[in-house]
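Session log. Operator J.P. requested a structure for one protein chain; no other inputs attached. Running the standard single-chain path with token output.
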Amino acid sequence: MHSFFPRALQALALSAGVLAAVPASAETYDFGGLILGDGAPLTASFATLTTSVVGDDVLFTLNAYGLDQFSGNEPWIGAMSVDGLKTGAVSDISGDANVTMGKGNGPDGSFEFKFDFSDTSGKLVDNEVVSWTWVGGAGHFNDFAAHVKGISYGETNNAWYDAALAVPEPNSYALMLAGLGVISVVARRRRPR
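Structure written below.
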């Protein structure tokens, strides 16, 4: 019984070391399922969003790469609505568009606010990237939707598309394996000899 605790502490310390080596939690979303926009394509993969939670902040990178598939003069991403609590502020903006935080109803009125990428100086068009930090945003979001503007489908000149979580990152698997390792060490030590 006395040898169980030192070994369990060793396993716990090893797991803590593995977890410390894993970077901040990152997730990648693909935009592409039509929410609102009569006549617009039902599915259209046109942008990815990478989110990384670091402490209380969320780092975003939005990559527009397939807007040329839409009919229209020059389709662009005007905003990204967030289903979550509007809190904090925007900082550390870099890339091809400005980012502001504002109120927004989103595609169906259920999205509380938005990050706006359009202003008098520019907008996020095909093959452009923008990154920013949402200060104080960690734990305050559930879902995202992208607002595509400048399209032409009959009377429809804009559409909303949802974000789907992409394939899990390798660090998610590392975290899961570390947890399973701790469980197996503890279970092995509990077996009677």
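Operator note: The chain has a mean pLDDT of 85.
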